[in-house]
Amino acid sequence: MTRHREPTEVGPETGSAPAIEFVDVHQGYGSGENRVHALRGVDLRIERGEYVAIMGPSGSGKSTLMNILGCLDVPERGVYRLAGQDVGARTEDELARIRGRALGFVFQSFNLIPRMTALANVALPMAYAGVGRPEQRERATAALRRVGLEARADHLPAELSGGQQQRVAVARALVMEPTLVLADEPTGNLDSASTEDVLSVFDSLAAEHRTIVVITHEQDVAERAGRVLVVADGLVVDDRPSRGARR
């Protein structure tokens, strides 16, 4: 029997549509002489299971692109489809539901709650979604196991290294089984050893055919993805396989 899906839910079984599709997406801020054209007609297609890195200098439009991808903003012109569904047609409440259930976010600054254990931090999205406590614990434990931190479940963030905190953040991003994982400079605050630990987790997720989009200014991090996009002046100016994908 097919599970009923709320009309605001976005899930992996939504036909054969790509994970992400931009059609002539424009976004700007301000007015008159102060008008900033952050995106200038972006066309983009990312298939399900792709691991994509986005690079670009400050002011290139990549942060605006990430905000739209994460349903934190909607295009002022053009279409963004997430798993075949037009995001621009959604209400604020529906966008919040999509962010909570279909998207997993990983931030540069970890964004863990200091007074909560690793397990409780990972379980938090399920608490907001109304998942029962026994299921929360089971799924959060499994997510920590996936990133190699089950033994640290009862530790507070301050008792973990930076790399471990970021892996907890990755576990939190995965616990709702999202359609898309978005990572914004996920290694920006990490040393080289911790960076490798986190990227190894992304490698394993890519091997599971998770759809992953990483924004980074680090070339080595970008080349771990299967595909690299370069954004400049509000446009995608380069779209190529990574060095790793070409090997």
Description of the structure:
Helix content is 32%, strand content 25%. The strands form two sheets. A six-stranded mixed β-sheet has the order 6-7-8-3-9-10, sandwiched between helices. A four-stranded antiparallel β-sheet has the order 2-1-4-5, covered by helices on one side. The longest helix is centred in the last third of the chain and has 16 residues, at 192-207. It contains eight helices and ten strands. The protein starts with 19 loop residues before the first strand and ends with a helix. Residues 1-8 have low confidence and may be disordered. It has helices at residues 62-69, 92-101, 118-128, 133-146, 162-174, 192-207, 219-222, 243-246; strands at residues 20-29, 36-46, 51-55, 77-82, 85-86, 103-107, 180-184, 212-215, 227-232, 235-241. By secondary structure, the protein is α/β, with parallel strands linked by helices. Helix 4 (133-146) crosses helix 5.
